[in-house]
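Contributing new records

If you add data, match the layout below exactly. Sequence lines come first and carry their own label; structure lines follow with theirs. Keep one chain per record. Anything else will be rejected by the validation script.
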Amino acid sequence: MYNFSAGPGVLPEPVLREVQAEFLSYKQGVSIVEMSHRSNTFATIVEQLETRLRRLMHISDDYAVLFLQGGATLQFSMIPMNLCESGRFAYLDSGTWSKKAIADAKHFGDVVVAGSSAAVNYRELPTWPDTISDVDYLHVTLNNTIEGTRYTEFPDMDVPLVADISSNILAEAIDVKRYGLLYAGAQKNIGPAGLTLVIIRRDLIVDRELPSYLAYSKHVDTLLNTPSTFSLYVAERVLAWVEAEGGVEEMERRNEMKSKLLYDALDTSSLFHALVSGKERSLTNIPFTTGNDTTDEAFRQFAETRGLIELGGHRSVGGLRASLYNAMPLEGVNRLIDVMHEFEQEGQDVSYKNV
């Protein structure tokens, strides 16, 4: 069984087996889900998680690492709340998640859309503004999980750069020093749902009159409330796996190889084609289609009977999508390509009932 879900995404099998073995008794103690988040044992897990993350992403001490909840969606509000100075925020509108971020930011100030690719249904990326000023920050979604686009060029900006890295964190190298704030839901490349990472430059953390959980300053170097303990534990184990496998550089190399294989198969297929072309193609999320909704659904069911699951496109756009996160093995991509060829050979009108 190969899981191509965009999130919660596939996790490394060795980590899942380790979690299974430790679930009832973590280090000869209670279950990990019963353990107090204030215990010394759990404090060690959190310390190791932060240490591994800093090492893997080269995060310097002038950045704080926060372990939060609420997914990236809560960050759509927390970012303008906490970075508000003038009350003007700039956004690049590159897809579904940036649209949601823009909508939430409007509750806290004036939003300047510095570029948008809505006119082409987000099949391309908006260009970076030549200059941007008189705003508190510029927000960008580095990898668009739904649309399958990815930024690879990052000009210097005169304002803090804020980035959603939910679907490409640890999948490719990210130069943390170029950003004021990075955030990511963990459920794509790091662990199970329930954990959100925020990496923020310390000079941007200001005490504000906000409800306690919504203030970044209350989360610095501490766990304010009971966190998603299981998610933190699994995340630490996943990061240990990434380190053992060769780090982010090795993950990026593998992801480039996997995505190239699938893009090459799509580009040479007589039936399937990718929805994004050129250098803006995502390494981790590849939307594709046959050009016919009925045939797309027939292929999804055909693939499912052959052990390939979660290949349906996002409900907002339809079609098909393969997410190739770090834990997706090369064998899974090769299997998908083989099943695509099999489907092509059997004819476009094949249906689930006929297989």
